[in-house]
Design brief:
Blueprint lengths: L22 E5 H4 L7 E4 L5 E4 L11 E5 H7 L13 E4 L8 E3 L6
Parallel strand pairs: 1-3
Antiparallel strand pairs: 1-4, 2-3, 2-5, 5-6
Length: 108
């Protein structure tokens, strides 16, 4: 069942969990399960971006919008990112790997 999702929601999130109505710009390769999420950006405007860390997200058709909870269902290790402060980016080398946080990170 589809429900409305929002680009931004008040942060920090209750219980440090992504709200079901929070949407994110997601690289198609991650959404389709072809590549793992290796980069998560909580931009300064309070929106969220999830990338594969390999392909250019600026290519036409490379991204879409999905609910963050769907991504966490597919990869529960993304749940830790619900605490990522606005303006920061977190990268990792592999699923289950340690997230490295970059403060005031620019968008790709």
């Amino acid at each position: 069942m589809a429900h409305e999702i929002f680009r931004t929601l008040p942060f920090p999130f209750p219980d440090h969990r992504f709200p079901p109505e929070l949407g994110a710009v997601v690289q198609r390769t991650v959404h389709e399960g072809k590549l793992p999420a290796l980069s998560v950006i909580h931009s300064a405007d309070n929106s969220w971006i999830v990338l594969d860390g390999v392909n250019d997200p600026n290519v036409e058709g490379a991204v879409l919008v999905d609910a963050m909870v769907h991504l966490v269902e597919a990869d529960p290790t993304l749940a830790d990112m619900a605490r990522l402060d606005a303006g920061n980016r977190a990268d990792r080398d592999e699923v289950g790997g340690k997230w490295q946080v970059f403060r005031d990170a620019p968008l790709p």
